[in-house]
Amino acid sequence: MGWTVIGVGSRGARDDAIGLLLVEALAQSTASPGLTPLLWEDADALTVAHDLLALTEPVLIVDCANMGLEGGAWRHFRPRDGELKITRDALSTHGLGMAEALEIACGLGFDHPVRVFGVQPFDLSPQPGLTPEMAQRMPELLTGLQTVVTRLLADWPPEVPEVQSVLPVPLRFVRPVLALGIESKNALAFGEGTSITLFQPCGDLADPMARSAMEQAVTALLDHPIHPPEVLAVDLHPDLYPSVLGRRLAAERSLKLVVVQHHQAHAAACMAEHGLHEALAVTCDGMGYGLDGTIWGAELLHLHPQGWSRLGSFAPIPLPGGDAAVRQPVRQLLARLLTAGVTIDAAWQERLGVSPLECDLWSRQCGQGIHAPMSHAAGRLFDAFAAWLGSAPRFIAHEGEAAMGLEAVAHGWQGKPEDLPPLPFALREEAGLIRVDWSPLFAALPVEPVPEAERPAWAYGFHRACAEALAAMVQQGVQKTGLQSVVLSGGVFLNRLLKALLLARLQELNVQLFDHRRLTTGDGSLAVGQLWVAGRKDDSSCV
User: Which of 108, 407, 408, 497 is 20 to 30 A off residue 223, Cα-Cα?
Assistant: First the structure.
């Protein structure tokens, strides 16, 4: 595999022809089996994006580019480095600019490495022929382009991404595995032999540039000449970008594919860190696609060499509006009140700050299951209680904001345990699952606003109740399995108060506790868990 070098521009717009002329000269002066020259003359942005999708090699685009430099200067860069700016109000011979064309192509699935050889124009007026100044610069520009192409060909396949950490493990992986992680806090991991390599985070894949960086890193690892992966591991959620990419690459390259449930991966990441082959796991976060199609996020799991099982969870509640309920915690509070049998009368509507129309709409969504997915997540429980206490904003600005605010309020409590308000929950078993039902708590909450001075006690009491509920799940799990090893993982355990209260309660049960020490407890270490699961599977376990 080599590089496709594309000259882009127009011969009727002065220096905009420089990309075409340079690639023509390169083709005449450089003969290499790894080099494919192309000319895209007078191509608009949509055509550029369309034609990029048809290519199967890394791409070097040669074009004039307004980079704020002196005329005739050139730069070689990755588009994500920021040299190309998206300028919605600027004119271009591509209709839109090259940055927009690349953004469109990446959004449609173009995942090959892209570099740009940009030349600062002197003049882009509608006249044929280069400016004299640019024509004089041609030999120097061609030398620069030849140097860049030579280096690209020599360095391909590219180096793998920068390493974040290497984790030794007490087993030998069946085969080399590349895990693609999750979407919001993406980081790749590679497992081979007796070690796991976790690479530097790619970022939030909602950002097209982060998505491009992740795709280039995956390609580099798959094309590695010495240690190419034989298995890809992805999250169970079918629509997350790493899952979509992994399925496509597995099909294109005839690789094995292992699908790992989100909370299974959380637990396995902590087990990998401590070299555990079997354990109970408490995994708490904001969301993760479950085997039953609901949103999991407060799970008691049993992981062992032959597989895993779900032993317990929080009882589910609807999220009216889906993601809108995450952004607006009062929706979650209303859903929990309804689930607890509370009538949302005029007093409650005033307390919640919702109109009768909003109340009716969200109630119907919950009752009829209209765009109201069911959630077991601990993070959503924190959101709802924070909304009742008055410590949550009307609309959250970032993930975990309501929960972090609630923890901050709880740290202000300085009283005695006997002074805390009782916050009830129910523990029962349904269809073999241990269920924690929070309806008794929300049924007992008063409609009157909580005075400011009393909020720390309520917030601390809530954290203590959550720790008690999770410990009760673990206690029943220990009785069912006889296991004494318990791992904790998931973003909710970034809450130091909850974690401290739970650890203290679990120590009373005489279990052996393991939490994250080298890896983050959040989604950034999920790829390590995916590896821990996938790396020990034989062919019959792969899909």
Answer: 108
